[in-house]
Design goal:
The protein is of the alpha+beta class. 41% of the residues lie in helices and 22% in strands. Bound molecules: alpha-D-galactopyranose (GLA). Residues 28, 32-33, 35-36, 166-167, 169-170, 334-335 line the site of alpha-D-galactopyranose.
């Protein structure tokens, strides 16, 4: 990957790249659709991600190129930018716009991006390229911004420049990931801790549905709005700032306030999922993988029935996992509506699991999934070459 990227940088820009940076993607182990409700999440960074080869230029231009997409941009350095169309370079452009607007001086840059994350598959390719750009600018100009602040500003870009009301989970995970650790992050206080993610005899398997996802952003924003509406109703009685500040018991006593049955289902998922994350953290800390796995299955069920963000592809995978003896837990990961599922599978059975699930999925859905064994990895970093 690196040698091809560097070679191609030389060909395209007729000079050497000064730096190569990398930022991973992520999976979320548990705690879905609750980061924007002030809840706890448990993601980890993965080995796949996005690379950037970059050099400063003296002609005051931002040049964006990518090995994976034909579209390029060559823009004058100016005081602000806005999103144009749906091209990939809006993500790094949004980050650069944020830096410029915040008063940081940038020079011209020649940039060549490349990634090995499936795009739009729920593994946070967007957060990966955003944090990658922010991380690179911070290193190139020695701005001394902390990793957490780089994650926060990248989220702001996703919210304001790209128009998706995402929470902080993805940007935090890809910036702050650690090898063999899951991150337990409280999205209300931003307190976090690393929990050993030593899966003992199990592999963390990622299953990409390969479903073409459309309108994910708008459905996502719809869930965001529904949670806000449920919170407003609960606030008539409860003095809370977000849905995850409500305990399952408090919700039971006050659910009549949420008169709309759809909003009630959404809130019920959020409140219970937050409680599951707490249980899951205890299970991981005590290396009780069976309990952790069961919580994954329950989380999926809730995302299917209450939050309604799964779909036939993801549900087919999880049903298969439930019936596969050497799989102790599985669930969708990320925003849903397609994208990826994760499963904990006994190491010795991964090859058999992969073959059988591929066949079953192909029969049920009509095309193949992509299945890879993965593990928790470090977050954004510079690559020496
Ligand atoms: C997307 C968002 C995250 C989070 C998940 C669902 O990945 O970017 O902020 O809300 O969906 O848990």
């Amino acid at each position: 990957m690196n040698s091809e990227l560097i070679e191609e940088f030389r060909n395209r820009f007729q000079k050497e790249p000064e730096h190569v940076f990398f930022c991973p993607g992520r999976v979320n182990l548990i705690g879905e659709h609750i980061d924007y409700n002030g809840g706890g999440v448990m993601p980890c960074a993965i080995s796949r991600g996005t690379f950037l080869a970059v050099s400063k230029n003296i002609d005051k231009r931002f040049r964006f190129q990518c090995l994976d997409f034909p579209e390029t941009a060559d823009l004058h350095l100016q005081e602000s930018y806005s999103k144009t169309g749906k091209q990939w370079f809006n993500y790094p452009l949004g980050v650069m716009n944020h830096f410029i607007q915040s008063g940081y001086n940038l020079s011209g840059l020649d940039m060549l991006f490349s990634g090995n994350l499936p795009v739009g598959a729920g593994l946070s390719s967007s957060a990966s390229i955003e944090v990658l750009t922010a991380f690179a600018l911070n290193e190139l100009y020695q701005f001394n911004i902390s990793l957490i602040d780089l994650a926060l500003l990248s989220k702001k870009v996703e919210n304001e420049f790209m128009g998706v009301n995402c929470g902080i989970m993805d940007q935090f995970a890809v910036a702050m990931g650690k090898k063999e650790k899951a991150i337990l992050l409280d999205c209300d206080t931003m307190d976090y801790e690393y929990i050993p993610f030593e899966t003992a005899g199990y592999s963390l398997v990622i299953i990409n549905t390969n479903k073409k996802r459309e309108l994910v952003g708008s459905k996502y924003n719809e869930r965001f709005a529904e949670c806000g509406a449920a919170l407003r109703l609960l606030k008539q009685k409860l003095n809370v700032e977000n849905l995850c500040a409500v305990t399952p018991a408090e919700f039971e006593m006050n659910r009549h306030l949420v008169t709309d049955p759809v909003l009630q289902k959404r809130a019920l998922h959020v409140v219970n999922e937050n409680a599951r994350v707490k249980d899951a953290a205890i299970a991981l800390q005590t290396a009780d993988m069976e309990t952790f796995g069961k919580l994954m299955f329950t989380s999926h069920q809730s995302l299917k029935e209450l939050y309604e963000v799964t779909g036939k592809e993801l549900d087919t995978i999880i049903e298969f996992c439930k019936n596969y003896a050497d799989c102790i837990g599985a669930r969708m990961t990320g925003a849903g509506f397609g994208g990826c599922a994760i499963a904990l599978v006994k190491k010795k059975s991964v090859a058999d699991f992969t073959a059988r699930l591929s066949r079953h999925y192909q029969d049920e859905i009509g095309y193949s999934p992509e299945i890879v064994a993965s593990h928790a990895e470090d977050g954004a970093k510079e690559i020496r070459f």
